[in-house]
Amino acid sequence: MKILNLSLDKSILDRNSKAARRIVEYGDLADSYIVVVPDKDYKEIRLSEKVFVYGSGGNNKIFQLINVYRAAKKLLKQEKFDVITVQDQYYLALISWFLAKKFKIGLELQIHGFEKYSGLRKIIADFTIPRASAIKCVSQRLKKQLINEFGVKEEKITIAPVFAKTQFPISNFQFPNKSQNKNQENKFIFLTVGRLVAVKNINLQIRAVAEVAKKYPNIELRIVGDGPERKKLELKIKNYKLQNYVKFFGWQNNLEEFYSQANAFLLTSDSEGWGMVVVEAVNYGLPVIMTDVGCAGELIENEKSGLVVPVSNQIKLEKAMIRIINDDNLRKKLAEGALSAIKNLPNKEETMALYKQSWEKAMKNKPNR
C-alpha cells in the first residue's frame, strides 16, 4: 500500500519533531509513505526507509498550495499510489479531490473538527466531505455530524480517537516562585493547556475565576500554551485585577509538573474534535470540567467521569468549579470514573490498525463526481 499525504503540519519538516516521529510510525503500516507540506522553502527529507517528506517552496500561501499541487501531481505521475490522505476538509482537501479523481485513487479525509467553518471554507467543505472515499474522525460526535449534516455514508467512516501516551518525561521546568506549589500554600490549582486562540474560549475561564475567587481566594488558574489571543487575555486579567489568580506559562514541552501540581483541569472550547489534553489530564488523575464538545459524552460523561457544562455558559462553569473545590469525594469519584473510561479507548496498536483500516476503505472507493 502506497500513501500520499498532503499535510499542513510544517513541523514534519523537522526530523526531531513529534510529528515527524509519528509520520515514521504511519510509514511502518505502508509500503511507502510520502508527505508534501506547504512551506516557503523547497526541501526533500528522508525520515525512514519508507517515509519521504517534501517542502513545497513558495513565497506566500497561495504559491505554496500551487506548488503542493504540482509536487503531488508529479509524484502521482512517477509512481502508483493507492490513497491520498489529508487532515483537512478545505483547500488541501480540494486539491486532493482533484488529484484523486484524475489519477483514480482513493481519497481519505482526516477530520478532527470544524474550526473556521464559514464563508469559502464552508462551501469547500460542503463539496469535499461527501466526495471522500473514506473519512477518519476522532469521535462519535463528529461521526454523527458527518452523517446528519453532510450525508456521509456510515460505512465510509472510521472513528480513531487521538492517541495520547499515559506517561510523560519528568519535567525540569522550575516555577518562578516555588511558593506557588499547592502543597506549600494550599492553593487550589485549575489547569488549562492549549493554543490561545478564540475557539478555545480561555476568556470564559478568566471571567469565571474572577467570580469564584471572590468566595475562594486560594484558587489559581494556570494557563499553559500560547497564541494570538494571549495579549488580549493578559489585558483582561489586568483589568479584572486577577494577576494573583491567573498565571501564564507559555508553551512547555514537558507537562508532567503542571499536571501533577494541579487539582482540576479545565477545557472550555466552543468547538473541539476530541481533546487530547483531556486524556492527558485524566492520566494524571485530575477531575475534568469541560464544555459539551469533543470527547464530552464519550470519555467524559457528566457526573460520572467529569463535569460537562454548556458551551459559553459562565454561570454553569462557576458552579462546576465551586463543586470541584468543595467536594473531595466528587473529585475522587470523577477522576476514578475517567480513568476507568480511558481504559476503553484504543491503545497504540489498535489505533494504528484503525488508521490502516481507513486507508483500506479509501482504496475500495473512488471519489464521487
TrEMBL record:
Pfam families: Glyco_transf_4, Glycos_transf_1. InterPro entries: Glyco_trans_1 (IPR001296), Glyco_trans_4-like_N (IPR028098). Residues 60-161 form the Glycosyltransferase subfamily 4-like N-terminal domain. One of its GO terms (molecular function) is glycosyltransferase activity. Coiled coil: none annotated. Residues 178-338 form the Glycosyl transferase family domain. This is Glycosyl transferase family 1 domain-containing protein. It comes from Candidatus Terrybacteria bacterium RIFCSPHIGHO2_02_41_19. The lineage of its organism: Bacteria, Candidatus Terryibacteriota.
